[in-house]
Write a structure and sequence with these properties.
The complex is a heterodimer of chains A (about 100) and B (about 500). Chain A has about 100 residues and is mainly alpha-helical. Chain A contains three helices and two strands. In chain A, strands 1-2 form a two-stranded antiparallel sheet. In chain A, a hairpin with a 3-residue loop joins β1 and β2. By secondary structure, chain B is an alpha/beta fold. Chain B folds into three domains: about 250 residues, Amidase signature (AS) enzymes, CATH 3.90.1300.10; about 120 residues, no CATH class; about 60 residues, no CATH class. Chain B is built from 17 helices and eleven strands. An eleven-stranded mixed beta sheet of chain B has the order 1-3-2-4-6-5-10-11-9-7-8. In chain B, α4 links the parallel β2 and β3. In chain B, α2 packs antiparallel against α3, α7 runs antiparallel to α17 and α11 packs across α13. The longest helix of chain B is centred in the last third of the chain and has 24 residues. Chain B is globular. The chains are: A mainly alpha (about 100), B alpha/beta (about 500).
């Protein structure tokens, strides 16, 4: 993985859905390449046959009863919404680009 | 009203004063609010303090006490909350512009457990944005300053939580620790900071940074207060399926019982790799040496242990933590809550809201996490890091066969100056002594040990115990605290 070349920060930012301005893009590029070069020292280790650790304390199959409980009322949940329709639904921008709103 | 020394006043001492009637909750809270008024324009630990609400809660507490009803001995004592832990009807911005408008509709489990014992959640504490940082310089709203020297950082990410306790603005506070974010600022500010075993404390209501590493814990003036908080907030929670079901109480009683005890028969391990680490300063080294001398005097046996994969911990951490962060922070898109930057369509709105809402360090980590998880790189980075995580965990398991507890530095240097570390990688490397525990799941505590003769800044030491052995950890840390050379750690401020 050492010679995969420069990180395409624009592409990665696209995957992460974050607008990056050109100025900070250059800085992020430099920082990320430095950090990735640092983390590549893990290559020196032989990890064949080692189980990966996903969690420090492995717990599996934590079940609970499938019981109906109290939920938050709609107005409470909508109180933080940036925009609503009649305080009843979250208002969002057009979902499919290029089509007029009906 | 009696004279209170807020810079050293503990929860257990305040509880005694409340119980004896020498102090009321209103007097106590008013004293803290006055102190905040006096010093927080300089320290800037708090993002928000709602005076009226705190005093109303204090008045209610005094009424409960006067009525003679049975109540918790901590009823009426305030606690500061890091701004990534939600409390009902309070803002929870994570020091990010993206979450600035958010008001939580519910209490986190830790806050509701505090309230159940009568504690008063008081004030929202500054932090590095989304807990990403080691200096509190990454807050979108303000920088926090170290009460010991206002030119220095308080550490991070729980910088506000550490600074407010050190400055006597709160008796205790909650922080969160993903790679050292409780222990490092505790060391920088001369207070106690406990990272419990992963799963001890419910994460319900903690805004997630790296879910397999995040753990909430207390910052306090002494080890007994840390034990009191763990008794209060710990234990299984049906709202967090990663919380551990075993009982989490009795720590305060156990810690109180050590008074007068020594450390005869206790083996303290010093991991040699930690003392060979690059950049370990003389003042920190000498602080640890003094701590070792104290432990020896108390009868402890000092043994050398080895944690051979120490040098890889930072690399593993910055793969796993950023990968988890990139997934966790995907939910912040300006649609259901938070600051939205409207664009022509939905996807463009995500881009714009996230671009405007996240600060540079948060973007850097999301991008790094997205990169290491992206197609073709997963095995090389993420999977390999998880395997090295196994090696790091085994290091601790093997070391714990040779000793009862491990003693290490917390940080390579005492608190550094604001602006001193501008390179992100250099900042990451300053976490070298704290992050391995988050990867392995051990519990650890940072305890003030010394004051640097040259700079006058506090130096902490870290005790590390195996998972779930908080009782041993807290008892040994308490015995050390009661016998260390310097008895009280309080800044002049």
């Amino acid at each position: 993985m050492a010679d995969q070349g420069r990180i395409d920060v624009g592409y990665v930012a696209g995957l992460a859905r974050i607008d990056i301005d050109p100025e900070s893009k250059e800085r992020l590029q430099r920082d990320m390449e430095e950090i990735v070069a640092y983390i590549e020292q893990l290559e020196e280790l032989d990890v064949d046959g080692i189980e990966p650790t996903a969690h420090a304390v492995p717990l599996t199959n934590v079940w609970r009863e499938d019981a109906a409980g109290e939920s938050f009322p709609r107005d409470v949940m909508l109180a933080n919404a940036p925009a609503t329709v009649d305080d009843e639904e979250i208002k969002v921008p057009q979902v499919l680009p290029g089509e007029g709103m009906s | 009203m009696m004279e209170l020394n807020l810079k050293t006043l503990t929860v257990h001492a305040a509880a005694d004063l409340l119980a004896s009637g020498e102090l009321t909750s209103v007097e106590l809270c008013q004293a803290y609010l006055d102190r905040i008024e006096d010093v927080d324009s300089e320290v800037k630990a708090f993002l928000k303090v709602d005076r009226e609400k705190i005093l109303a809660a204090a008045t209610a507490s005094d009424k409960r006490r006067a009525s003679g009803e049975e109540l918790s001995c901590y009823d009426g004592i305030p606690v500061g909350i890091k701004d990534c832990i939600v409390a009902a009807d309070e803002t929870c911005s994570c020091a990010s512009k993206l979450l600035e408008p958010v008001v939580s509709p519910y209490d986190s489990t830790v806050v509701s457990r505090f309230k159940a014992k009568g504690f008063i959640p008081a004030g929202r504490l500054n932090m590095d944005e989304f807990a990403m940082g080691s200096s509190c310089e990454n807050s979108a709203f303000q920088k926090t300053f170290n009460p010991w020297n206002l030119e220095c950082v308080p550490g991070g990410s729980s910088g506000g939580s550490a600074a407010c306790v050190a400055a006597g603005e709160m008796p205790i506070s909650l922080g969160s620790d993903t790679g050292g974010s409780i222990r490092q600022p505790a060391a920088f500010c001369g207070v106690v900071g406990l990272k419990p075993t992963y799963g001890r404390v419910s994460r319900y209501g903690l805004v997630a940074f790296a879910s397999s590493l995040d753990q909430i814990g207390p910052m306090s003036h002494d080890v007994l207060d840390a034990a009191i908080v763990l008794d209060t907030i710990g234990g299984g929670d049906e709202n967090d399926s990663t919380s551990l079901p075993m009982p989490c109480e009795g720590f305060a009683e156990a810690v109180k019982a050590v008074k007068g005890q020594d450390l005869q028969g206790v083996r303290v391990g010093l991991p040699k790799e930690y003392f060979e680490a690059e950049g370990l300063s003389d003042s920190v080294k000498s602080g640890v040496e003094k701590a070792v001398a104290t432990l020896k005097q108390l009868g402890a046996e000092i043994v050398e242990v080895s944690l051979p994969h120490t040098k890889y911990a930072v690399a593993v951490y910055y793969i796993i933590a950023t990968a988890e962060a990139s997934a966790n922070l995907a939910r912040f898109d300006g649609i259901r809550y938070g600051a939205r930057k409207e664009a022509d369509d939905l996807v463009a709105t995500y881009f714009k809201s996230r671009g405007a809402g996240f600060g540079e360090e948060v973007k850097r980590r999301i991008l790094l996490g997205t990169y290491v998880l992206s197609s073709g790189y997963y095995d090389a980075y993420y999977l390999r890091a998880q395997k090295v995580r196994t090696l790091i965990r085994r290091d601790f398991e093997q070391a714990s066969e040779k000793c009862d507890i491990i003693l290490t530095p917390v940080t390579p240097t005492p608190a550094f100056k604001l602006g001193e570390k501008s390179d992100p990688l250099q900042m990451y490397l300053s976490d070298i002594f704290t992050i391995a525990l988050n990867l392995s799941g051990n519990c650890g505590i940072s305890v003030p040990a010394d004051i640097c003769a040259e700079t006058g800044m506090p130096v902490g030491v870290q005790f590390i115990a195996p998972a779930l052995q908080e009782e041993k950890l807290l008892k040994i840390a308490r015995i050390f605290e009661l016998n260390r050379e310097i008895k009280e750690f309080a800044p002049e401020l």
